[in-house]
Write a structure and sequence with these properties.
mainly alpha, 0% strand
Length: 295
């Protein structure tokens, strides 16, 4: 009797959360899927069946091709840069430096700032203006006689999106540093000492011992950074505004849905973004569950 009572009490306690998730997450996902298969364009809802017409039109749209290219460039630069910089900072802090707490706080501080604030600051730092209007990093490079580093930043054709990825690296590398630092501190010193006794150099210790043991953290970092890059929106808007060369699917979705009132195609873009994130998240969840069962 008491066991059944505990069971019913548990169900009652978690049922509000379950119901909320079913309605406000999966319910709205299902509704967005239905809208993406409709001809809804304009203020008045139109749920007439359109099939895959919105999806076919998207993949034949040159603007969406630009969005996909920019997403790949942004994701590549952002993910690789954040992981490399975060790992480097973690290794430096793991050396037992004086004032470690201070530097750790400094590295983590950008993460506490919103993407809008980051974008506004870096828009000034990456000011592409030249001559008397030069400011930010270009002015710094010019003052140091490093004129070869002066460039157009986010206004550079094709690769301007990579400059915006630098701002995301600045914001997220501290978080990746914290992940790697926790992983480094969890590795027993006995393993390193045994390797040193066997004559292994520090480089070989990191290559053959430390990095393999940090594989789960690297995988987590890839998933976190990857899904963040796929839905980037506010950072690009804050830095450059709505410019076609820097367009990404999230911006296209916003303009299509709320500026153009083409709800059917906007919903199709959102479903594509959802599936893109799922491609990253679902394998990671399966890997985590499988690892937990084996342990």
């Amino acid at each position: 009797m008491f066991k059944n009572k505990d069971k019913y009490l548990s169900v009652i306690l978690i049922s509000p959360s379950v119901i909320a998730i079913l309605i406000f997450v999966y319910g709205f996902i299902g509704w967005s899927m239905r809208v993406s298969l409709s001809n809804w364009k304009g203020i008045n809802p139109d749920y007439s069946w359109a099939g895959l017409k919105n999806y076919i039109a998207l993949f034949s749209d040159p603007r969406f091709h630009i969005d996909i290219r920019n997403t790949f460039i942004f994701t590549g630069v952002f993910v690789i840069g954040s992981i490399l910089l975060g790992f480097f900072m973690a290794v430096m802090l793991d050396q037992g430096l004086r004032g470690e707490g201070f530097f750790r706080s400094i590295f983590l501080f950008p993460m506490a700032i919103s993407y809008i604030v980051t974008g506004v600051v870096w828009r000034w730092l990456m000011n592409p203006a030249e001559g008397v209007r030069m400011s930010g990093l270009n002015l710094l490079f010019s003052s140091l006689h490093l004129d070869f580093l002066v460039n157009k930043w986010y206004t550079t054709p094709t690769w301007g999106i990579a400059a915006i990825a630098m701002t995301a690296i600045w914001q997220m590398s501290g978080y990746i540093m914290a992940l790697y630092l926790a992983g480094l501190r969890s590795i027993p010193n006995e393993l390193r000492e045994a390797a040193r006794i066997d004559g292994a150099s520090e480089l070989k210790i990191y290559r053959h011992i430390i990095l393999p043991l940090l594989t789960p953290i690297t995988l987590s970092a890839l998933i976190i950074l990857g899904h963040t890059s796929l839905k980037v929106f506010d950072l690009i808007i804050a830095v450059s505004g709505k410019q076609l060369p820097l367009d990404v699917p999230a911006i296209y979705m916003w303009q299509t849905t709320f500026d153009g009132l083409f709800y059917g195609r906007g919903a199709a873009i959102s479903i594509i973004l959802l599936l893109s994130v799922a491609v990253l998240i679902i394998p990671y969840i399966r890997y985590t569950l499988k690892t937990g069962v084996e342990q």
